[in-house]
Amino acid sequence: MRNGEIFVAGILALFSVYLMVKSAELPIGFVSGRGPGGGAWPFWLSAIMLVCCGFIAFNWWRGTSPPSRSEEPFLDSYGWRMVITVGGALIVFVALIEVISMYGAIAVFLLYYLRFLGRHSWGLSLTISLATPLIFFFFFEGAMRITMPTGLPFTDPLFDLLYEIIY
Amino acid sequence: MEILSLLGGGMLLALQPLNLALILIGVTVGLFIGAMPGLGSVNGVAILLPITFLVPPSGAIIFLAAIYYGAMYGGAISSITLGIPGASTAVATTFDGRPLARQGRASLALVTAAIASFIGGTVANVFFTAFAPLLASVALAFGPPEIFALMLLAFATFVGLGGDDIPKTIFSICFGLVLGAIGFDQISGAPRLVLFDMNGFLQGIGFLVLAIGVYGIGEMIWTIDQARGEVETSTPKMTMRGMASDAAEATRRGWKGTAIGSVLGFFVGILPAAGATPASLMSYGVAKMMSRVPEEFGRGNPDGVAAPEAANNSASTGSMLPMLTLGIPGSPTTAILLGGMVIWGLTPGPLLFVQETEFVWGLIGSFYISNVAALLINLAFIPLFIWMLRMPFTILAPMIFVLSIAGGYAATRDMFDIWLIVIFGLGAFVLRRFDYPLAPAVLAIVLGPIAEPTLRQSLLLSSGDPSIFFTRPIAGPITVVALILLLLPALKLLRRRRGKAEDGAA
User: How far off is chain A from B178, nearest CA to CA, in Å?
Assistant: First the structure.
């Protein structure tokens, strides 16, 4: 955690500098007759962020913040496995939305999570992962009139059928 | 006396069978829409606006106000049970609501939220009834310097009260404010902070994108990691007797927060552009400051649930005041209500109280009735919300992820934002591991678009002289209090060091 603390502070400091540079694309000073320039607000806030990173590094050096005194690793083997299996699944879930539709992606994600991470029975996993997208469809498209992504054209026949029910 | 008879007439109008049915349906629909992460009162009111053309204008506004009330109660439900604030007004409710739910005391948190909301709403109704025209003129005295000073106070409550790492808290606030500045410069219209030259940033980053990322994804992954796969789901049982004892405990341990939230919430709510989010945040801060056990805040103190909940309901009623009396909406929802009134042929403004007496007092009467209806309906559904918490965590967790992504898309309709939600979620998990507080960033992204233009307008008024924040009669004291709160941690640190030095010398 001790190394991680200074590493994260360094990354955030670099990001603050990047934000300052991007803000400076617009005027950052006082423009006569028009008040502070468009870049002033984000520029000075990013500058404060940079100063804060300096203080965080100072506290790290003095060892006053809890992570800077901690000897435990940022993530142990369980933590890494969990971040990869859950975080990775979320990324795949979002990537699938534009391929097999929001509802298809929900079904696949739930089935994966319930069956393989949650170790629930096939029956329960299949029931929840099929019922949830259906309920969501009728709630979002039917009741709230919010259209969700339907994915690539191969999903059209299924959606035509479902839309016929609600319209 | 005249006010009482007008109010009585208004209540009778609200109790007519059609209007009463509209109130009951509106509150129930609002409660469930508000409880969905990603959907808030704005969605409910906007979606159901067309339905209101089927009923007379007085019934229509009563229906919309009932949805608004229901959604305000509903916002607390996802904050407490899922840990995801359904709306920015309910962010502060997660601070103590979520810890209570983790301790298996979700019912206490939900009952406290319901009772505090009811009292907040009722106190605001009484203020509204008694002082509407007078308060409208006070609200008008709030110009850009006063509103900026108020925003400064909201941020100062965070820094001044936090026992956490101060540089990290300030970093978080500034980070949220910068995220809120992405998109277009509101004054010149020039594109600003288009990060990595990706066009998706041109539309800015909404509050919900950050909130759902931080709470729906980041916080969940953090919980799964901390619990090492064995998340203890509380299995609270809900009985009538249990609810009665929770109600008694909520009253005993949450009265102070309720009182602070009810009064402070209303006054912050009536200010144009301020609204329920800073109101709930400030009330939480003040309740913590005035508590005898401030260290219990953030670990499951009922006062910490009561204060923001009383405040957001009170402020919601308060924000109706500038809309009705001046025609200035205080929040996006009241802006839609205002639009509805214009479509129905009513002109909001000072004359509304004179020309459309029946409409105005019917609406005010319906506030009282909606509030009672919302309390009863909310209490009736608490067992259902508690039942949700008894689901095994390996079912609840993927459901929350799915709700976050689908709710996020419903709110923004943009895949770019969904990717941002995932990135914010994973980033929030890392920052949470290193003790960065993230709630300040979430609130800052809401308040930033109010704070920046008011700061720029104020400096334009004073030709760049910042003393404008100190010399105006209302802005001055607010700014001074904000600065004292900001400097408080440094003063405490100095005193502690001096104390240590004296001990060493002795």
Answer: 5
With contacts defined as CB-CB under 8 Å, which chain A residues touch B430?
8
* Beta strand spans in chain A (E): 30-31, 35-36
Whole-number Å distance between alpha carbons of B176 and B173? 5
* Interchain CB contact of A82 with B (< 8 Å): yes
Measured CA to CA in angstroms, residue B163 lies from A120, B154, B288, B437, B479 at distances of 42, 17, 12, 11, 22
User: Would you list the DSSP string of A104-115?
Assistant: HHHHHHHHIIII
Residue B161 has pLDDT above 70, yes or no: no
CB-CB under 8 Å, A30 with B185:
no
User: Could you tell me which residues come within 8 angstroms of residue A119 by beta carbon, excluding any fewer than 6 positions away?
Assistant: B394
In terms of Cα–Cα distance, which of B269, B259, B181, B188 is closest to B452?
Answer: B181
- Look up tokens 């539309």; give the residue: B203
Alpha carbon distance B241, B147 (integer Å): 46
CB contact under 8 A, B401 and A109: yes
Average pLDDT over residues B133-159: 79
Task: Tell me which residue in B167, B181, B418 faces A41 most closely, judged by beta carbons.
Answer: B181
Q: Does A91 touch chain B (CB under 8 A)?
A: yes
- Give me the pLDDT at residue B136, please: 66
Position with higher pLDDT, B100 vs B51: B100
How far CA B435 is from CA of A105, B299, B439, in Å, comes to: 33, 16, 12
Closest CA to A146 of B396, B71, B400, B33: B33
Cα–Cα distance measured from residue A79 to residue B15, given in angstroms and rounded to the nearest whole number: 57
DSSP A117: I
Q: Is A42 on the interface with B (CB under 8 A)?
A: yes
Q: Which residues fall within 8 angstroms of residue B149, CB to CB, at 6 or more apart?
A: B469, B474, B475, B476, B478, B479, B482
Sequence spans of domains, chain A: 2-69, 77-166
Inter-residue contact B424 to B217 (CB < 8 Å) = yes
Buried b (16+ CB within 10 A) or exposed e, B117-151: bbbbbbbbbebbbeebeebbeebeebbbbbbbbbb
User: Which tens digit of pLDDT belongs to each residue from A32-52?
Assistant: 777 888 899 999 999 999 999
* Residues of chain A where predicted confidence (pLDDT) is lower than 70: none
CB–CB of A144 and B39 under 8 A?
A: yes
Query: B43 near B84, Cβ under 8 Å?
Result: no
Encoded amino acid at B179, one letter: L
Angle (CA) B417 B418 B421, round 5°: 85
The domain tally of chain B equals 1
Among B502, B489, B403, CA closest to B159? B489
